[in-house]
Amino acid sequence: MTTVISGLDIAHRIEQQFPDAVAEAAPEGATVRAERLVEVCTFLRDEPDLRFEFLSSLTGVDRLEYFEVVYHLTSIRLNMMTALKLRIEDRENPRAPSVTSVWEGANLQEREAYDLMGIVFEGHPDMRRIFLWDGFDGFPLRKDYLIGPGGRFPGLERFPGEPGEPFAGRG
Question: What pTM was computed for the model?
Fold first, then answer.
């Protein structure tokens, strides 16, 4: 059975090595300060007692007031997993450090978060859209995507699952 290292436990391990690197700790994950992210991730990958050598997922989350990047880390050798978070306050120009130098697998996942959420990963070797075409207007996974200048964008009248009248003539 895989051991889950709680956010509180991993925050404690990080703080022992990098004082003041953790902005917040909760059972579901430790929130790391952006300026310390790469060195913290390198430590988590290289520390013999942890060996989080696999970034199983990197996801952008729109919390309305801010963005969050969630990193799910796995140690295949030690059969453990944990989660890190990075909070991005600037919704107009969201930026985060790239972790492609730590995990090559972050390349595609950071590009996906950029393409769909608009989060720019500084230091990424190829920061461009990966699913949508160049010139696509906006970032469709943002919660405010349907609302633009002059009202809602054409297409969906509302997000699926929002309360309201059933869709008429649209699938």
Answer: 0.85
